[in-house]
Fold:
Amino acid sequence: MATSDRTASLMTPAKLAQVKPKAPVSPAAWLDQMAADAGHVHVSRLAELCRELLGQDRLRDIAPAGAKLVALAEALPGLDFGLLQSRGWWARATGRSKSSGAEFAAQFERIEEVSRSLAAHVQALQKKQQDRAMVSELTLVEIEVEVRAIEKIIDQGARWLQDMRNQLKAREASASDAASQQAVQDDTLRCEILVARLKMLRAVSSAAQHAHQQAQAAAARRAAVLQLLQQAVATNLKSWQARVSALAGVAGDNDAPALSLEGPMESHRELQLCIKQATADCGQLQSQEKALAESLAELDTQVQAARS
Structure:
């Protein structure tokens, strides 16, 4: 593409507004340079920004967290406090108290292994999110800037188009020979080039705005889910591990005093509820991330069409 063909994309809306049509006006020169390539620079930058966001596929981060939450949610009901509720003299005499306590301790160890895997992943996820958050925010700001620039070009182009059409009507009415009439027809066809370009730019702008909204919504939900994982889940896990591990440690000791199950059982219930909520929130975030990926794919389709 020749340098002169990109004049339109390099001119700011303010500069375009300063251009005044001269009578008699023909849109040929302006359309030849501007119509087919209006907004080229901004569309190209949007394509780059779209690729940046597509490269930040957070489903690869949040999907494992969701899987680990599901694994813990499925493991927690496997801790049977009923094993510790019968610790009378007969259970001690027959050894059932000791074996039941050992089984309870083994159940706890299996679940604790799953919980530690979740805790480690949440910690790594937090660091990765901190590294990416600022980059994503800057990318979204740039998208907003480019969309505004395209919207200004669309508005200015529509005004130019209206001016050209009004003047073409006047020329058509006064065209007295075949050459004049042919010139009007040629200029009318050139106006249609601008019509097609403005339609394409509107599609790009609409897709970019939708992707921007989806990205903001996903970012807000992601922040909420990470806060839940880092605070509520971590707090409940720590409390659960402290209370139940102490219980599991003495569960097989026949000489231990009567075990108090109320506190550990309450902590276990609270952790189950917290994990259930976190699992649901994580699933919603995954759906939000998928919607964002789809909107970015649509934006990529539109910008590639506008660049071809």
Q: What stands out?
A: Confidence is low (pLDDT under 50) at residues 1-26, 87-95.
